[in-house]
What does this fold into?
Amino acid sequence: MTAAPDDAARLSGISSASPPAEPAVDPAGAPARQRDAAVGGRFAGTVVLVTGAGRGLGRTIAEEFAVEGATVVVAARTARYGERTVREFRERGLSASLVLGDLAERADVARMFDEAVARHGALDVVVHSAADNAQGLLAEIDDDALDYLLRSNVYALHWITRAAVPHLSRSKLPGRMIFISSGAANRVFSPGLNAYGSTKAYLESFARGLAGELGPLGVRVNVVGPGLTVTERMLGHLTHAQADALASTYPLGRAGLPEEIAAAVLFLASREASYITGASLLVDGGASMVPFPARGAMNDSAGH
Ligand SMILES: NC(=O)c1ccc[n+]([C@@H]2O[C@H](COP(=O)([O-])OP(=O)(O)OC[C@H]3O[C@@H](n4cnc5c(N)ncnc54)[C@H](OP(=O)(O)O)[C@@H]3O)[C@@H](O)[C@H]2O)c1
It folds into this structure.
């Protein structure tokens, strides 16, 4: 159910009487990608905050936005990853800055967004890619791991939303939020990853509800659900070849690349997606169409 405009206005802190119109799609389509130039891209003049951007998929998403001309705010938990990412982006002439904090801490979330907006004066796009992936059988996962998982993956959704919406609703573009889910949300159930997958199911429902609340403000909210994707974390469990072997039964027969997930994120953030909100886009090579492997055929090193 869509929130009353008054509720949305209360969330954003501004009047919802005249939601900003998204610019019409350019009939000529998006400008060609300019991997080597940070100016003139699809997201020039846009401030994009990406959580979990110190490494992994979040880093690739931030990189693709920066290559398309955005100013990216790399939100990272581990300082050395965040610092390395920002340094390497800047060395390539890309526009990036760093905010550090643990999304499991409400005060950190508020501070990270405050710092980003104080530094750049606006916030147009938020991509929430960070996620804790605590592993364990449901009957065995202990309360400390569960508490951190829920704070990182569930409470943080609310804290990020509270911190971001007042700024996104003022964006001249207007604002967009994209949440990174997983094929593990309601579709694939991997031993050891069910608690994690359940938080992604919460995320998907949360994002759809939020799309309804923020639509009156012109803010679009969408979800991208990766399947098995070759990121740093996944490579800690499997080689690339093992990942492709695991994915050999998928319709596309291989694991995904971070760039392929990022492409979907950039599309949903673009003006070409101006009429898309509340959507959940699987980018999984068709993995969710394949029957789950026979009992015992998969172990907890199978990624997610
Ligand atoms: N790779 C896959 O096959 C796959 C499949 C489906 C969905 N996904 C989703 O894609 C996203 C990125 O995953 P990935 O494979 O790139 O994994 P990753 O390399 O482990 O990245 C996860 C990121 O989240 C950050 N993070 C975790 N808990 C945090 C917290 N409490 N506060 C702040 N940051 C936190 C990590 O920070 P640190 O650097 O400090 O650890 C890391 O940067 C996740 O949402 C994941 O669920 C991935």
Notes: The first helix runs from residue 5 to 12. The first strand starts at residue 47 and ends at 51. Residues 52, 54-58, 77-78, 81, 102-104, 129-132, 152, 180, 182, 226, 228-229, 231-234, 303-304 surround NAP (CB under 6 Å).
